[in-house]
UniProtKB/TrEMBL annotation:
Pathway connected to this protein: Cofactor biosynthesis; coenzyme A biosynthesis; CoA from (R)-pantothenate: step 5/5
Organism: Pelosinus fermentans JBW45
EC number: 2.7.1.24
EC class (word): transferase
GO cellular component term of the entry, any: cytoplasm
Protein name from the UniProt record: Dephospho-CoA kinase
Function, in words: Catalyzes the phosphorylation of the 3'-hydroxyl group of dephosphocoenzyme A to form coenzyme A.
Assigned protein family: Belongs to the CoaE family.
One Pfam family this sequence matches: CoaE
Keywords from the UniProt entry: ATP-binding, Coenzyme A biosynthesis, Cytoplasm, Kinase, Nucleotide-binding, Transferase
NCBIfam families for the chain: dephospho-CoA kinase (TIGR00152)
Gene responsible for this protein: coaE
């Protein structure tokens, strides 16, 4: 199994690239989706979060108040690290299960869509790292607009992640999402076709 780690900064357009890859036939493992699932009501990770952060971070329907929790962890690196230690083992276990499922279905390549690939130390779990890059100023404005955040709230979230320029330096491939969607799409198509060709050569 050939594993591609797709990462990027918040509001860089990683989800857009992930959707493009899915349309091209890529098997996508969405760690954001998994992260939401592992903190659903009655899940062990949620119980640990409640025990640490208290009932005040819970909504009446039993779900986590993500905005409140976000404000806590993005202003306090220790609390953020604590949260990550609580949920990352559950996320990793689910990702491993998804890779096994992909193998059973006959896929030779999977794409793990993971925002915090570098921060979580997942470099060794993937064969290739693709970073979706966007100019930092564009990233900030997109984040403020998309999430309806203040400038400070947006900066707190950006500062909680490895700088997107540094991520680009550490990757095998950079997909520049600064320009229009069509430009990004062409980069994605080329990258995916190159992977398909590589895998076909391996099987030949």
């Amino acid at each position: 199994m050939y594993v591609i780690g797709l990462t990027g900064g918040i509001a860089s357009g990683k989800s857009t690239v992930s959707s493009m890859l899915a349309k091209l036939g890529a098997y996508i493992i969405d760690t954001d989706k998994i992260a939401r699932e592992v903190v659903m009501p009655k899940q062990p990770a949620l119980l640990a979060i409640m025990a640490h952060f208290g009932d005040e971070i819970m909504l009446p329907d039993g779900n986590v108040n993500r905005k409140m929790l976000g404000n806590i962890i993005f202003q306090n690196p220790k609390e953020r690290s604590c949260l990550e230690k609580m949920i990352h083992p559950y996320i990793e276990a689910q990702v491993d299960n998804c890779i096994k499922k992909a193998e059973q279905l006959g896929h030779r390549t999977v794409v793990i869509d993971i925002p915090l690939l570098f921060e979580a130390g997942w470099q060794s779990k993937v064969d290739e790292i693709w970073v979706v890059y966007v100019d930092p100023s564009v990233q900030l404005s997109r984040l403020i607009s998309r999430n309806q955040l203040t400038n400070k709230e947006a900066m707190d979230r950006l500062n909680a992640q490895l700088n997107i320029t540094e991520k680009a330096k550490r990757s095998h491939l950079v997909i520049d999402n600064t320009l229009d969607v069509e430009n990004t799409k062409q980069q994605v198509i080329t990258a995916w076709l190159n992977v398909r060709e590589k895998m076909n050569n391996v099987m030949a």
